[in-house]
Design brief:
Layout: E1 2-5, H1 15-24, E2 30-35, H2 47-53, E3 61-66, H3 74-80, E4 84-88, H4 95-104, E5 108-113, E6 131-135, H5 151-164, E7 169-173, H6 178-187, E8 191-194, H7 196-199, H8 204-216
Parallel strand pairs: 1-8, 2-3, 3-4, 4-5, 5-6, 6-7, 7-8
Helix pairs in contact: 2-3, 6-8
The structure holds 5-O-phosphono-D-xylulose (5SP) and fe (ii) ion.
Catalytic activity: D-ribulose 5-phosphate = D-xylulose 5-phosphate
Keywords: Carbohydrate metabolism, Cobalt, Isomerase, Manganese, Metal-binding, Zinc
Enzyme class: isomerase
Length: about 220
């Protein structure tokens, strides 16, 4: 079970401090939300922030691309120091090609589906990815409420993994707090992204410990 704090809710004027803080508190990945103002109605950061963060942490950088036609930028993010690059099924006409590009760049690849997208839409690429991300909110913003209908997709992905011997991790992102993390863990999730729950607190590492307790109990 892994916890991936999302820096979307960190203090952008103190990113180094906020990344080092959660690393010391037992985070497993640093989740980096990249938004382009087109695929989603918000703009965040680009490869230059990933390269600035690379030397400040030993943790894998889990880069969630919410951008149209990610094939235009995956190589830039790989060069910047991303360890895992995750692309939306809905963002490209060439999902297989972009996943191959990520692999060829020497980086782990992930595919992500929005709440309205079924698992069947990514069936053909499940054997080639290292991670499948199930959005449990509509992408674009932190602090939204968890959408319970997404749990069935986590169960489906968990069953498909077991039946076919696939190797992907199942990550969940959006509205993760101890209660929803427990439901996702029961459904088969392994990686838990949490932004506002961790960073909108006086004690981010206390919040990480509470999620850890919920998913490991
Ligand atoms: O990808 C996204 C939002 O699009 C996330 O990674 C958010 O950062 C999650 O925020 P919380 O729901 O945990 O506040
Ligand atoms: Fe994300």
């Amino acid at each position: 079970m892994k916890i991936a704090p999302s820096i979307l809710s960190a203090d952008f004027a103190n990113l180094e401090r906020d990344v080092k803080l959660v690393e010391a508190g037992g985070a497993d990945y640093i989740h980096v939300d990249v938004m382009d103002g087109q695929f989603v109605p918000n703009i965040t950061l680009g490869p230059n922030i990933v390269s600035a963060l690379r030397p400040v942490t030993q943790l894998p950088l889990d880069v969630h691309l919410m951008i149209t036609e990610p094939e235009r930028y995956v190589e830039n993010f790989a060069k910047a120091g991303a360890d895992i690059i995750v692309v939306h099924q809905e963002s490209t006409n060439h999902l297989h090609r972009v996943l191959q590009m990520i692999k060829n760049a020497g980086v782990k690849s992930g595919v992500v589906i929005n709440p309205a997208t079924p698992v069947s839409a990514i069936k053909e690429v499940l054997e080639m990815v290292d991670l499948v991300l199930v959005m449990t909110v509509n992408p674009g913003f932190g602090g939204q409420a968890f959408i319970p209908s997404c749990l069935a997709k986590i169960e489906e992905l968990s069953e498909l993994r077991q039946t076919n011997g696939y190797a992907y991790e199942i990550e969940v992102d959006g509205g993760i707090v101890p209660e929803t993390a427990t439901l996702c863990a029961q459904a088969g999730a392994d990686v838990f992204v949490a932004g506002s729950y961790v960073y909108n607190s006086e004690d981010p590492n206390g919040q990480i410990a509470l999620i850890r307790k919920a998913i490991e109990s």
